[in-house]
Each structure stands twice: as C-alpha cells, then as structure tokens.
Design brief:
Strand content: 15-25%
Number of strands: 17
Number of helices: 9
Structural class: alpha+beta
Order of helices and strands: HHHEEEEEEEEEEHEHHHEEEEEEHH
Strand order of the largest sheet: 1-10-9-4-3-2-5
Helix content: 25-40%
Distance between the termini: 28 Å
Radius of gyration: 22 Å
Length: about 425
C-alpha cells in the first residue's frame, strides 16, 4: 500500500471523536502529504499590512520547501513572489524583513522591480529578453489588516473569508496599528498537535495560571457552536453589537474559519495579571469602550487571534517537519502608542509569553507520548473538547476529499 492509500484508508476507518492514528503526528511521509494537500493549496496567514509601512518594505517566510517574499509595491499594494532568482535559483531576499527600492539577488545582482519584473541582468548577451524572467508571483490577498498568501496555481476563492472577517475586524483598524513585540518559538510537535492544544481550554486550569486570571475555562469561550446558549456570552454579544461591533459566532460551511467575540472574566479588559489595560491608548480610535472582551479568529491551518480594546495578539503556525512547528506571536498596539509611556513591554507580553511556553511544554510532552508503540487514539471530552473534534473533522474531511480521485465519492461523509 502506498502512502496516499494508507492515509486515505486510515481517514476512512478513523473513529469520530477520537484523536488520529500515530502516523498523522510523527510520520515524515504523512507530513509531506499535509504540505502538498493543505499547506501548498490553502490560504495562509503571513503577517499584517502595518508591517509593510512604506514602498519597498518586505518580509520573507518559508512554507515547507517554498521561500516567499512579500513586498509593498510602488502602487501601495502588497505583492508576493517566490523568493527564488530566475537566474540560478538563489534566494533574492535573505533577511526576515527589510527595505529596498528594488529586489536585488546577492549572487549575481539580478535586479527586480517591486512588481516582480526583471529590471536588470548584467552581461547576459544581446538577445537576452528580461521580460521572460520576472519573479514568479504568489497569490496574495489582504483582509482587515491581515496578509494571506496561497501557493496554489489556482487558489480557492478568498472572497468568502473576507466577507465574513472584515465586518468583525475593520472597526479595530489593525491596518493602522504597529507591532510592539514579536516572538517565535519552536514546538517539538506536529502542527496538528499545536492546533489541537489550542482548540480547547480543558487543560487551562492545570497549566495556565496567568491566562486563567482573565480568560474563562468554559468550553463555550473557545469559539464553538452553542455559545449563544450561554447567557453571559449572549449578553456580551448584545452589548458589543449595540456599539457597532459584530460579535456573534460565525463559521464557514467547511469549518475552516470562524470568528466570535467572547467576554473575559469578571471586570477584566485585557490579558494582564490584574485584568487592567496593558496599553493606555486604545487600539482603535473607532472603539470607545474598554470591556469588549476578546475577538477570536481561527483560520486553519495558520492562525488564531485575540483582539481586545487596548491591543491585539495574533498567532501564526508554520510547520517545519513532522515533529517541529514554529509559532510566531505578535502583539499589536495603536500606531501612536509609546513604549514606556503608554505601555510597558513586560506587562503587555507577560501573559501570552508564559502561556506560549506552557503550551510548548504541553505539546512536546504530548508528542513524546505519541511516539510510544503503546499509543492508540483516545476519546475527546464531549464537554470540553468539541473544538478539538471539530478541527480534526475539518482536517480529515479536507484530506479525504483531496486524496480521493476527482469525481469519486468519499466512502464516509464528515460533518
């Protein structure tokens, strides 16, 4: 049995409401199929508009085998390209971020305009046609201050995500924010384990003392169906929507992305030990109330987010190998907020810095145990782990459809 047939067979035989078979979490060949069928075909969150402040500012990212550069163009738009010189393939932009009027390959100085066209290639002969050797484009879209790319030749329609997400996010003006701090940690676990850990707070009381000062452990607070039946959440939604902030739970039909605004505990307004504001200047000039809770956004496979009245915390998941995942966290504040005056960096970042490290340890212990020959899939809690089950259903559904021959129906329908 080849690896595709093996994965498809396991997906069709899996027991709903249970974790996946061992190879899904540790096998390099299964990981390669994840890259090919999801990461190289779906829309991926990369960063924020506000990180590319001027023409020529750029950032780079590695998605599996693909290095990509994202740059602010002459027209003010944001472009993405394969970060591979059309001469002999060297990376054109070697830094994580930078600023340049043109993109110059350091190997032989082939020079590209910000629209990807080749402007200069020295001593290539009289018949050399620069128009045939521009950087290869990567699909790029922005929504609500977020930049997404898609490596597929024919990307899925981005419009449904933008239509759902922007009404929730535009009031927070993340396009006008700035990144106050950024960190990347490497978790020694499969990217799906990182997501499974994120999609429940069953573990929070025993592992996240800092986060539990302000974030509720209630299963309804993790962005799942049924939250509207919680009186506190329903009241919170009504209060926020009365001031023009969309808040009710929404999810696309395939379960890939969702948004909802959730209350914090008691009188908390921000993720701090005290629950008080971490930033004295509100994140958005359009939002004039402090107790708006946290706006959650989940978009598989790359991002979950918390947007509060004083700042936002955004997370990017990027797979490195079958057993390693990079998690990048960014703290966004109002563009005019001044460190040391409007906020202290240690207070702003403390809760999620600690929580991230605790989650890293959890994921790594989970991965360690899954390597055991004794491991077998276990049941998710019907009370607390509905979000985990939903993520696994999404993953299994997507992979089953994409591994099945075109036009041939799957053997089992996944809700």
């Amino acid at each position: 049995m080849d690896i595709r047939a093996d994965m498809l067979s396991r997906l069709r035989a899996r027991k709903p409401g249970y974790s996946l078979d061992q190879p899904f979490y540790i096998d390099p060949d299964f990981f390669k199929l994840d890259l090919e069928q999801i990461w190289y075909r779906d829309w991926l969150f990369i960063g924020h508009d506000c990180e590319l402040t001027t023409v020529g500012s750029y950032m780079t990212v590695q998605v599996g085998a693909y290095p990509v550069v994202i740059v602010r163009g002459e027209d003010g738009g944001i472009n993405a390209f394969h970060n591979s010189c059309r001469h002999r393939g060297s990376r054109v932009c070697t830094k994580e971020r930078g600023q340049s009027n043109k993109l110059v390959c350091p190997y032989h100085q082939w020079t590209y305009e910000l629209d990807g066209s080749l402007a200069f290639a020295r001593q290539m002969g009289e018949d050399f046609d620069t128009t045939n050797f521009g950087l290869k484009p990567v699909a790029c879209e922005t929504a609500g201050g977020y930049i997404f790319i898609c490596l597929a030749d024919q990307p899925m329609d981005f419009a449904p995500f933008r239509a759902m997400m922007e009404p929730y996010f535009l009031p927070h003006r993340l396009r006008d924010a700035k990144v106050a701090f950024e960190s990347t940690i490497i978790e020694k676990g499969n990217w799906k384990l990182v997501w499974e850990n994120n999609r429940e707070c069953y573990h929070c009381a025993g592992n996240h003392p800092e986060l539990c000062k302000t974030y509720p452990e209630a299963p309804t607070a993790t962005g799942v169906n049924g939250a509207e039946n919680d009186p506190e959440i329903a009241e919170h939604w009504a209060k926020c929507e009365n001031i023009g902030l969309p808040s009710k739970f929404v999810m696309d039909s395939d379960g890939q992305f969702r948004a909802a605004r959730m209350p914090l505990l008691r009188d908390a307004v921000s993720y701090t030990i005290s629950g008080r504001k971490a930033v004295q200047t509100r994140l958005s000039d359009n939002v004039n109330m402090d107790r708006i809770g946290t706006l959650l956004l989940f978009h598989y496979p790359t991002t979950w987010n918390h947007v509060l009245s004083d700042h936002a915390v955004t997370f990017r998941v990027m797979p490195i190998s079958a057993t390693e995942t990079a998690v990048t966290t960014k703290w966004l504040v109002h563009k005019d907020a001044v460190e040391g005056i409007d906020y202290r960096l240690d207070e702003l970042t403390h809760v999620w810095t600690e929580t991230n490290d605790q989650d890293r340890q959890i994921v790594e212990e989970n991965a360690f145990g899954i390597h055991s020959p004794a491991y077998e899939p276990g049941p998710y809690s019907e009370v607390h782990e509905g979000g985990v089950a939903q993520f696994v259903e999404w993953y299994a559904n997507f992979m089953e459809k994409r591994l099945t021959d075109a036009g041939k129906p799957a053997l089992r329908s996944v809700a």
